[in-house]
Amino acid sequence: MAIVSVSSKSGASDVLTALGVNVNVTPEQARQALDEIGVCFLFAQQYHSGFRHVAPVRATLKTRTIFNILGPLINPAHPTYHLLGVYAPELVKTYAETAVALKHQHSFVVHGSGLDEVALHGETQVAEIKNGKIEYFTLTPEDFGLKTQSLESLRGGEPQENAQYLTALLQGKGKTEHANAVAANTALLLKLFGYDDLKQNVQNVLAHLASGNAFKTLQKLTTY
């Protein structure tokens, strides 16, 4: 579930649009993509009228609002397995308790040293929600078998520039720092489904990226 970027130059919908993906697909098309290729994009404005009506105001404010908090929690697909990133450490507990209330089967809420994702430039605060219980812990790059890297190494730019970075990454030709960041986040996601070895998960993701097969999936996504 994604919303338009208001606090940075480029959000997920901007990058996917630059790559030729139709982010305004119907729910039926999104379901078809998920069933056929295992991935789809859900644009909040397509599913919740409130997001559509406040989009111009949010763009003008260029700051985070309550909608940045709500977006990931009101996914119309109602997934019960979730990797949720929050932009502030104090939201980890709030999201975790909300995930319990929403009856998530197994989810992670993460805040990575200022980022709403697993960090490789510092520690990542994690809340694991499983069977109605919450466990809090911290992860470091070493837990993934990776070295610490600078936050600057992940800095992007305009949508077209980020689209080029993503294309290279999915073709197996991307920057090492980009590949490692994707691998760390995907490694934790895989743990939701029984793949508990984070270091091995990282290696599997890096191998998949190197194969270029991920780019083929992106190409298929552009056909919907």
List keywords for this structure.
single chain, 224 residues, alpha+beta, Pyrimidine Nucleoside Phosphorylase, Chain A, domain 2, four-stranded mixed sheet, 4 strands, 11% strand, disordered N terminus
What does this structure look like?
The two termini are 17 Å apart. 25% of the residues are buried. The chain has a four-stranded mixed β-sheet with strand order 1-2-3-4, with helices on one face. The protein has one domain: 3-Layer(aba) Sandwich (Pyrimidine Nucleoside Phosphorylase, Chain A, domain 2), CATH 3.40.1030.10. The protein has helices spanning 12-18, 27-37, 44-47, 49-61, 66-70, 91-101, 159-170, 176-191, 198-211, 213-221; strands at 81-85, 106-111, 124-130, 133-139. The model is unreliable at 3-7 (pLDDT under 50). Strand 3 (124-130) and strand 4 form a beta hairpin. With 224 residues, the protein is of the alpha+beta class.
Q: How would you summarize this macromolecular structure in one to three sentences?
A:
The protein is an alpha+beta fold. It has helices at 12-18, 27-37, 44-47, 49-61, 66-70, 91-101, 159-170, 176-191, 198-211, 213-221, and strands at 81-85, 106-111, 124-130, 133-139. The chain is globular and about 40 Å long.
Write the layout of secondary structure elements.
Blueprint: H1 12-18, H2 27-37, H3 44-47, H4 49-61, H5 66-70, E1 81-85, H6 91-101, E2 106-111, E3 124-130, E4 133-139, H7 159-170, H8 176-191, H9 198-211, H10 213-221
Helix pairs in contact: 1-7, 8-9
